[in-house]
Specification:
Elements (H helix, E strand, L loop, with lengths): L1 H8 L6 E5 L5 H9 L4 E5 L3 H13 L6 E4 L2 E2 L4 E7 L20 E8 L3 H4 L6 H8 L5 E6 L5 H5 L3 H7 L2 E5 L3 H13 L3 E5 L4 E5 L1 H18 L8 H4 E2 L1
Parallel strand pairs: 1-2, 1-7, 2-3, 4-6, 7-8
Antiparallel strand pairs: 5-6, 8-10, 9-10, 9-11
Helix pairs in contact: 1-9
Length: 238
């Protein structure tokens, strides 16, 4: 959360945060509470969890700055089946699209690409919906936590990456997932590293990563006066 707070605080004015796998909306709510000039788009495919997300937006009176989308992000627009292992209508920690065991039940969901947000497509009305609320001036940070389907999401975001060069925080469930993500980010000219103590990686352009490495430890120390000073390598594994 500290790294996310740093990225949002240092985002350009009016920037947008994209939350793929928003769940109940913690990161979207967190991002928009830090900066009152920033916006968020949250994608959550699970119907019941999406309802919780919308309720949390309303309870926090952030409906003018968070756009909830009952959709999944993927490499192409399609319909897919979302398996659930535990008998609750939510894709919860421990579930993954790649599991081979028989699910308790499944849910049909619509998928969009993140590039849809900037292409002007109206297949799912996402671009038009967003522009009516607030313009997509700059995408600063994208968080992806989709239980093993992170690479599929990234493969639908090439145009968005090219235009905005956002910083990514992506879940990596294991070393194999990490290596696949590293390969993708190298392909688009990014560098990626493990976030220490988490199952997440941070990925950014070389210049942005250099800035994060230099400034985040200083920022973190300022937020925790009296605490032991940390170094960049203690926060981000190289």
């Amino acid at each position: 959360m500290a790294l996310m707070a740093f990225l949002i605080e240092n985002a350009p004015k009016g920037a947008t945060f994209i939350d793929c796998g928003a769940f109940a909306g913690l990161y979207s709510l967190f991002a928009t509470s830090i900066r009152n000039d920033c916006f968020a788009i949250g994608l959550e495919p699970s119907a019941v969890t999406f309802g919780r997300f919308v309720q949390n937006i309303q309870l926090n009176e952030l409906h003018n700055r968070i756009l909830p989308l009952h959709l999944a992000a993927a490499s192409q627009e399609r319909v897919m089946s979302l398996p659930h292992q535990y008998g609750v209508f939510t894709l919860c920690p421990g579930e993954a699209l790649s599991k081979t065991g028989a699910p308790d039940h499944s849910e049909t969901v619509l998928c969009m690409t993140l590039d849809t947000l900037i292409e002007g497509k109206t297949d799912f009305a996402t671009s038009r919906m967003y522009e009516k609320r607030f313009p997509l001036n700059h995408v600063a940070v994208i968080k992806i936590d989709v239980e093993g389907a992170e690479l599929d999401v990234l493969n639908g975001a090439f145009q968005l990456i090219e235009r905005f060069k956002p910083v990514f925080i992506c879940e990596a469930l294991n070393d194999t997932a990490f290596n696949h993500l590293i390969g993708f980010f190298q392909k688009v000219g990014y560098v990626a590293k493990w976030v220490a103590g988490e199952r997440n990686i941070i990925a950014a352009t070389p210049a942005a990563m250099e800035k994060i490495d230099a400034e985040f430890p200083v920022w973190f120390s300022e937020q925790s006066p009296g605490q032991q000073t940390i170094t960049a390598t203690e926060v981000i594994k190289r």
